[in-house]
Specification:
alpha/beta; Metallo-beta-lactamase, Chain A; nine-stranded mixed β-sheet; seven-stranded mixed β-sheet; 10 helices; 25% helix
Length: 300
């Protein structure tokens, strides 16, 4: 993939992260299963891949030690090719598989993944898809057949591994019960020692307002733009609070939703100095920390 650097960050300092405890809400048996079933790797720095899965979301965080955390898997089998493009053929283990919320463009590809990869544990917001959703029933059945645990997390929970952590900022108890599934999406602040990424699922203005009103830190070097660049997300105040250097929009070319919306692109441009990347134009996008820089590569 073509490499491209953003501007040098004059104030880019390594994050100092104090970690305590293990994976909250996952018992030690599950965490042992996750860690010790995985192969070792020589990777020395964290990378995050925004996978090109068409009209859907899928983000792969790879930590040193070959710890792989996949958030969402797009709608269908496209995720398999995207994973094959960034992982070696022998690397068929995913430590944690996160379902941000139970809509098909976020979980559908996991049915294919479970046919080709081993998964240590699934994490979700505790909600089920709409009754009669065959793909969701199939996925839950595969989890059961393969004895893969499913863990529910929400606002305030954290996942720790070495000097990396994922803070779950939303949903709180109210949003978790919302009739609008987009409100229930897991919002993850992924902290590595050298850069921070905010993954926002399909959340909209109301969740952004909640995050700001609750005085949670949403500052991040990299922003996964909410809801594929929908006009109902990425408010000016939220974008200024995140202040990203890189903003990634996961979206399909010529999609029927008109995403990303021109109004959203305008807000990103006026409220941030972010370098904007899009999977419809750039394919799979990789982000990592260089020597005082945020570095990116893109497939196209």
């Amino acid at each position: 993939m073509e490499k491209k650097k953003t501007k040098r960050l004059n104030t880019f300092d390594p994050l100092s992260i104090l970690l305590a405890g293990g994976l909250i809400a996952v018992d030690m048996v599950i965490w042992y299963q996750i860690l010790f079933a995985a192969p070792l790797s020589l990777a020395t720095s964290a990378h995050i891949y925004f996978l090109d899965v068409g009209q859907g979301d899928s983000e792969l965080v790879v930590l040193p030690g070959d710890i792989k955390i996949l958030t969402d898997a797009g709608p269908d089998t496209k995720v398999l090719q995207s994973l094959a493009n960034v992982l070696p053929p022998s690397d068929t283990y995913i430590d944690l598989a996160i379902i941000s919320h139970p809509e098909a463009d976020h979980f559908g590809g996991y049915n294919s993944i479970l046919d080709h990869y081993r998964v240590g544990a699934f994490i979700s917001n505790g909600r089920d898809a709409a009754p009669g959703n065959a793909a969701w029933s199939q996925l839950r059945g595969k989890m059961k057949d393969k004895n893969v645990p499913l863990v529910t997390l929400g606002a305030g929970d954290k996942i720790h591994y070495a000097d990396n952590e994922i803070n779950i900022l939303s949903p709180n108890a109210d949003f978790a019960q919302s009739a609008e599934l987009n409100d229930t999406g897991l919002v993850e602040l992924v902290k590595t020692p050298r850069f921070t990424t905010l993954l926002t699922a399909d959340t909209g203005f109301n969740v952004e307002d909640f995050l700001l009103a609750s005085h949670q830190s949403v500052r991040a070097d990299v922003l996964k733009v909410p809801h594929h660049g929908s006009k109902y997300a990425s408010d000016d105040a939220f974008l200024r609070a995140v202040d990203p250097k890189v903003a990634v929009i996961e979206v399909a070319a010529k999609n029927t939703f008109g995403q990303p919306a021109s109004s959203t692109l305008a807000r990103i441009a006026s409220s941030t100095n972010a370098h904007v990347l899009r999977t419809d134009r750039d394919g799979t996008i990789a982000v990592w920390a260089g020597d005082g820089t945020i570095e990116i590569s893109k497939e196209k």
